[in-house]
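Lecture 7 notes: from sequence to structure.
We start with the chain below.
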Amino acid sequence: MEDAEIIGYKSRLRDGDVMILGKEDASMKLTLPLKQENLCLSDLSFNVAGQTDSSVTFAVEQEGKQLQVRYTLRPDAYMLDMDITAKGLEGMTMPGQSALLLDWKATILQQEKGADFENRYSSLTYKRQDKGVKHLAETSNETKTPEEPLEWIAFKNQFFSAVLIAEKPMTKATLTTTQPGDDYEGWLKEYQATAEIAFDAAAGKGSHLQMYLGPNDFHILKDHSKMTAYGSDADLDELVYLGWWIFRFINRWSILYIFDWLKHAGLPMGLVLFLLTVIVKVAVWPTQKKSYMSSAKMRVLKPKLDELSKQYPNPDQAMQKQQAMMQLYSQYGVSPMGGCLPMLIQAPIWIALFNFIPNAIDLRGESFLWADDLSAYDDLIRWSTDLPLIGNHLSIFCVLFSATNLINTWISMRQQQNQFTGEQAQQMKMMQWMMYLMPLMFFFMFNGYSSGLSYYYFVSGLISILTMWYLRWSTDDKKLLAGLEAYHEQHKNDPKKVSGLQARLEALQKMQEQQKGKR
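Predicted structure tokens for the same chain:
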């Protein structure tokens, strides 16, 4: 196997273009089982039998027997076609044997600045016939023998892939990924794939293979899927991991369109991420406002909740107190869960972008402010020795993200304090310190992550702070309470509506009273 470079994508660690496969780091052996001995194609001396601007044909011929391999490079594409044919081998092949044996190995070179982060997004990936795409573990050793035939096998880096595609699905595959040991230097892991490829020399039927050697760009991969025998169903675009189905749906049908629209406007990537954040925050503004207003209603009702707590001071009256509180909420048209659902709606978008940004090849090599590459960590502050948990650098965008996260946690805790009374309020105080640990955990987690991701979360957190300030400033607690009182006055004669939770509380209370009566 010769060197395979991807023209136009510069290596971040060495001179020249990205080398996806190197002749000293990768090998692909195709072996034809014969009666006397196996014939390995790489051991033969091929001669050039024909050549054009886009193709070259190699052949080896002896005593009327011929093997021919033709390589064709698609114009303006990252696809290489390989046609393997044989003549005169009818009496030499094993009976019933109609396959080439594939043994493909590669040491996956580090291409990006952060090896640990790149390793998390690099995996041996494969497509099962008429089924979905799967992959081996990213950060541990693993071997799999898929039961289904495979349409393609990909040796995938974070941003680049070498994909072997067979016109007829490959069978009896064994796939292995191996993590580096202590002698790691400039490479991420090792991949190996063995399989059988349809090849009937006796019947004169050859094999048609393809190799995609290019970037993990969603649109490019989708276009190259159409060049395969499987058409769009080849699903090469799934090499760009966009998360589980719900997160992939959000990324595929909303985030990707917004990102492309901003990108095609010719804006710098730092500004693209900023505007993307603003658009997402505008989209979730109704849910954020609803969540805040629910908390605000709980805040202005707190004096009434405190009065209820005084009526039921004993721990054994907790059920009665909870029932009375639920009745009070119902009378004033307030739902204690009203602030939770809007937050749950926002969570999938937060997670979807966690998957989208690290896989966006458009951020690779793009600088913004002090970050020289938005796809890797920013290390304006760095030192020579690796420290536990933090490594050898300090990501400023990560620090800013953690700081805004801490402030938002403080704001959230203040809001929740107004929603609980008595023993519940004391329990919340005990849990607060755990909540304040989350920004610290995020700092250690994201310090080695993509600076573009930390930058997005920083801007998102900053907008959340400003939004909460605006909502608090624009909310008149007296008017809000007056509105609740008006609701209470208007509906005080309505038939009593018992919520599901309140009904369960009443049932539990009756059960407890019955048990006390039996005693």
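Points to note: The domain at 4-241 is CATH 2.70.98 (Beta-galactosidase; Chain A, domain 5). The chain has a mean pLDDT of 84.
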